[in-house]
Design a protein that fits this description.
Chain B: Belongs to the binding-protein-dependent transport system permease family. The complex is a heterodimer of chains A (212) and B (221). With 212 residues, chain A is an all-alpha fold. Chain A has one domain: Orthogonal Bundle (MetI-like fold), CATH 1.10.3720.10. Chain A has ten helices and no strands. Chain A has helices at residues 2-6, 8-42, 44-57, 62-73, 80-104, 108-116, 121-151, 164-173, 176-204, 207-211. With 221 residues, chain B is mostly helical. Chain B has a single domain, classed as Orthogonal Bundle (MetI-like fold), CATH 1.10.3720. The longest helix of chain B is centred in the C-terminal third of the chain and has 34 residues, at 185-218. The N and C termini of chain B lie far apart (54 Å). Classes of the chains: A mainly alpha (212), B mainly alpha (221). Chains A and B meet through helix 4, helix 7, helix 8 and helix 9 of A and helix 4, helix 5, helix 8, helix 9 and helix 10 of B.
């Protein structure tokens, strides 16, 4: 406990580093996945390659991806940008499938009704498809956010500062409190983001609760 | 890109693969760790998942614990257990089992639950006992989802088993961390490529098993 009290500054700093790695990755994964999912649903022949292709990314182990990616991107192996890119790809591996399935689950009758009302396909996407698919997409995004925050700690073994640094430092110097603090902070951060996502879902999509 | 070529050259040399600390031995160790961790996890999660799916109780607890464990960083668990039990295979095994159990558990209970309740009722009406319903109806019909859970667990474990070397065990993480410490990028990349290949191969193998199970279970009906 003494160690934690004596190192609150460092823990706070690493928490911010961790947020700077994982939050942009979650956001980027979401923003990149939705258009891909739309494309996958519009052009049926592309669906399998897009959904399975991004899903295959999940088969690529995290640590090797953290190492192979900088070679492809030309960034340094200890560059935080590289960690953000790797985490984004992992998020997309889950999010593209989730978004594609959510959009696919919007009933055909509703879509036809909207088309009959004179909606353009662009207008229908924003005012019919997206609101109806939103709750299912949010469920996917919650999984992505939790796993991204947890996965971001792995980059610490490569020397990228994050809450994972508390694990590596703690292990090397034999400080149990450091590792414990890291585990607790990671879980707390995941819970807070999850809570924020649920709350924003309630605010932005009040219809989801009525249906459930 | 140069590093990538050098890594490839390293991988096509016979010397890289032979010897007690060669890539071949490390890949074999890695596979053994994966099988051991997933095997122990299956021993825990399969009975538990079947019980949840069969009796329909404890589902909320199973869902909740699965979600909570997902938030738990594996590297943290690994180093924490490592500090308690010391370096070796014990810490990575505990961490990998904690990682794998939720996936197998989720696959198993959703597999057992996915069976149409009318089919279960029909089996009961035919005079099948609880065990017969479980082993002759729910497990076979839920098999594709159960295998899917194991497939996901294998994928997660094969990638994360790299970290075993961080606390002094072997596996493909050993050449990876050696390369990382000595700035030997070709070695680092070579080890990464081997583990990626291993993961993709295992995924393809399990995908085939899963499809076969799905086809068999759809059966002559």
């Amino acid at each position: 406990m003494d160690w934690i009290l004596a190192n609150t500054g460092r823990i706070a700093e690493l928490t911010l580093d961790h947020a700077a790695l994982s939050l942009p990755a979650v956001l980027a994964a979401f923003l990149l996945s939705v258009p891909l999912a739309v494309l996958a649903n519009r052009l049926r022949p592309l669906r399998e390659p897009i959904v399975s292709g991004t899903g295959l990314l999940y088969a690529v182990p995290s640590l090797p991806l953290f190492i192979v990616l900088p070679i492809i991107l030309g960034t340094g192996i200890r560059d935080p940008l590289n960690a953000v890119a790797a985490l984004t790809l992992f998020g997309m591996a889950l999010m593209v499938r989730s978004a594609a399935e959510a959009l696919d689950a919007v009933s055909a009758e509703v879509r036809l009704a909207a088309a009959a009302q004179g909606y353009s396909s662009w207008g229908r996407f924003w005012t019919v498809d997206l609101p109806l698919a939103g709750p299912a997409m949010l469920a996917g995004l919650r999984v992505v956010s939790v796993s991204t925050i947890s996965l971001a700690t792995v980059s610490a073994v490569l020397g990228v500062p994050s809450l994972g640094s508390l694990f590596t430092d703690g292990f090397q110097r034999g400080i149990m409190e450091s590792v414990l603090a890291g585990v607790v902070m990671t879980v707390v951060m995941a819970l807070i983001l999850d809570l924020l996502l649920v709350l924003s879902g309630r605010l932005l999509m009040p219809w989801a609760r009525r249906r459930a | 890109m140069n590093h990538l070529l050098e890594a490839w050259e390293l991988l096509i040399q016979a010397d890289t693969w032979t010897g007690p600390t060669g890539m071949g031995a490390r890949a074999w160790e890695h596979l053994l760790y994966t099988v051991l961790a997933v095997g122990v996890s299956a021993l825990i999660a399969l009975p538990a998942g079947l019980a949840v799916g069969h009796f329909g109780r404890g589902r909320n607890l199973a869902v909740l614990s699965t979600g909570a464990v997902r938030a738990l960083p594996t590297l943290g668990v690994l180093t924490l257990v490592g500090l308690v039990v010391g370096v070796g295979l014990m810490a990575p095994m505990v961490a990998l089992i904690i990682l794998a159990v939720p996936s197998i558990l989720a696959g198993t209970y959703s597999g057992a639950e996915s069976v149409d309740p009318r089919v279960v009722d029909a089996a009961r009406a035919q005079g099948m006992s609880r065990w017969q319903i479980l082993f002759a109806v729910q497990i076979p019909l839920g098999l594709p989802l159960i295998i899917g859970g194991i497939r996901l667990a294998v994928l997660q474990v094969v990638g994360t088993a790299m970290l075993a070397a961080y606390v002094g065990a072997g596996g493909l993480g050993a050449p990876l961390f050696l390369g990382l410490r000595t700035y030997d990028y070709p070695l680092l990349l070579a080890a990464s490529l081997v583990v990626i290949a291993l993961a993709v191969l295992l995924d393809i193998a399990f995908g085939t098993v899963q499809r076969t199970a799905r086809r068999l279970m759809r059966g002559p009906a």
